[in-house]
Amino acid sequence: MKTLLHICCAPCANQCIDVLRGDGFEVTGLWYNPNIHPFTEYRARRNCLREYAASIDLPVIERNDYGLRPFVRAVAEDIEHRCVKCYEMRLFEAARQAKEGGFDSFTSSLFISPYQQHELMREVAERAAAEYGVEFLYRDFRPWFRAGQERARELGFYMQKYCGCVFSEEERYLKKSKIIP
Q: Which terminus of the chain has a smaller tally of CB atoms within 10 A, N or C?
């Protein structure tokens, strides 16, 4: 069974890859994250994934769209509820790539994060699967989150400090400084 794993970053992906391979899946990664900003952050996460993928013989499809303007246009009307748009951008692309690439299914390393809106992501992924006629391989990877973070530190991965979009970075700074907008 061939599955396409959308990958947000190597620290989140390492355990997902191990779990899927352990379950007998032939895994290919997909790098598509037009939400990640600024470009230096985008590049750091992408390059870390490239190095890790090479070290574990993981094929990766790269859709290198640094999408600042399209992402901001998509979420500008409702920044508070931007996550659904972000999930749609990435999971619909994963479903499309899976269908076009002849994969049996797709999933995402986003499902390892306890900080993501898990049920919303699942609903979006199921819609994407229905639209493209490809199976969404649901896995709740959250039980492996801490192990994945520990392994990422051991391997010297670049470890990001926020989800990825410029608005999540802003929230991180506002929380640190306790500034209320």
A: C
The conformational region for residue 130 under phi > 0 = left, psi -120 to 50 = alpha, else beta, is alpha
CB 159 within 8 A of CB 152: yes
For the stretch 58-75, pLDDT in tens is 999 999 888 888 888 888
Name the phi and psi angles at 27, rounded to 5: -100, 135
The residue ranges of every structural domain in the chain are 2-177
Task: Give the pairing type, strands 105-108 and 135-136.
Answer: parallel
Fold of 2-177: Rossmann fold (3.40.50)
pLDDT digits (tens, 9 = 90+) for 25-38: 999 999 999 998 88
Q: Tell me which residue of 154, 171, 179 sits closest to 15, measured CA to CA.
A: 154
Contact of 47 with 36, CB cutoff 8 Å: no
Instruction: Please confirm whether the linkage preceding 38 is cis (ω < 30° from 0).
Output: yes
Among 23, 9, 22, 7, residue whose Cα is nearest residue 106 = 7
Q: How far apart are CA 139 and CA 42, in angstroms?
A: 25
Residue 177 burial (C-beta neighbours within 10 Å; 0-12, 13-18, 19+): exposed
